[in-house]
Amino acid sequence: MKGFTKVLASGVIVLASSATFANDFFNFSESDSKTFSSENGVESTVQVIDTSGNWKKFNQYLGKENQWIWSTSNSQVLGWYSENGDRQVLVNFEDTIGTTYNVDIDNCINQATIASKGQTVVTLAGTFSDTVELTFSGDRSCAAAGISSAIFARGIGLVSYSRPIYGNIAFETTRLTSAIIDDVEYPIFNGIEVSAKFPAGRVLNNHIDKVSAYLTIENKSDSAQAFTFNSSKLFDIVIFDSNGVEVNRWSANKRFLMALQNVEIAAGESRTFGGDISLVNINTGRSLDVGSYTIRIELAGTNKPEASAFDSVPFAVESPLYIDQRVSL
Question: Could you tell me the residue range of the domain that residue 300 belongs to?
Fold first, then answer.
């Protein structure tokens, strides 16, 4: 089984075949994007516009336009490409509090320091507590001194940064409002965290006749979360072929008690839903052919905050499913 852990969900999540949900501070690909908003209401979108090896060029980063950022393969170390053409270490997230780095941000800021770790940061995109804060110092009399601090959260990266304003006598903070990272959409919906487990690698249908799928709902908020179900069916598992045609459904030919049910998950608790689904085409009664499929597990109930103006959100996760056969010699 392959894990899909600690994913912040607000709807359907689609897993790539090689998807990994990083424990690093700089997981950002060309298909990802982030939206930030300043305290003055100015919005900005951050995207990768070019790449070269481990270097990524952003349309803007930490308020700097067309900025190149380098990272190690595990994204524990970030590098900065200065205006003078120098390649400098911006931060090593594994270093201790107080570690400093000589880095030329804008010909005014010349040093970055790990100021804190574990600071809780609240943004519209979610609440993050596994964080690293950088502070920047240099010639504050310089009018171009454009960054004073930045906070990175594990698994999503940069979540806020501050810059001096009004002649460097005050500071304005820009915070993350939404993001798409590794096909995961932020913000958190109502403090709920979703994870799922699916079959790993290729499934040999002449060796096994069923696969498992599980969906875990964890309540990360400080109050109980209630889910409403229209019957005793709490979840469903569906397999689609490469054309998107449904070929099997876990609930097919099953009977459920048609009565409204509520499932409550206490603050800090979790509940797992799921089971096995056979590798059979329910339309033909035969084993699924060799090929590529999509397996989806979905919660049959919904969670809707009290007095919410929004529709109930379905919780579901999809992943590729590859079916093959073992060849006998």
Answer: 192-324
111 touches 103 (CB < 8 A): yes
Q: For residue 56, with 0-12 CB atoms within 10 Å meaning exposed, 13-18 middle and 19 or more buried, which class applies?
A: buried
More confident residue, 192 or 299: 299
State whether 217 and 70 are in the same domain. Answer: no
Phi (first) and psi of residue 25, to 5 degrees: -110, 10
3-class DSSP assignment, residue 277: strand
Amino acid at 110: N
> Residue 60 and residue 43: Cα distance in Å, rounded?
12
Shared domain for 106 and 56, answered yes or no, is yes
Tokens representing residue 39 in the block: 């305290």
Query: What pLDDT does 199 receive?
Result: 81
Alpha-carbon distance 94 to 25, whole Å? 10
Q: 13 pLDDT exceeds 60?
A: no
According to DSSP, residue 227 is labeled: E
Same domain, 30 and 102: yes
Q: What is the pLDDT of residue 324?
A: 86
pLDDT score, position 16? 38
Give percent of the chain above pLDDT 70: 83
DSSP-assigned letter for residue 86: -
Q: Is residue 6 part of a domain?
A: no
The whole-angstrom separation of Cα 127 and Cα 137 is: 27
Q: At 305, list the tokens.
A: 């905050």
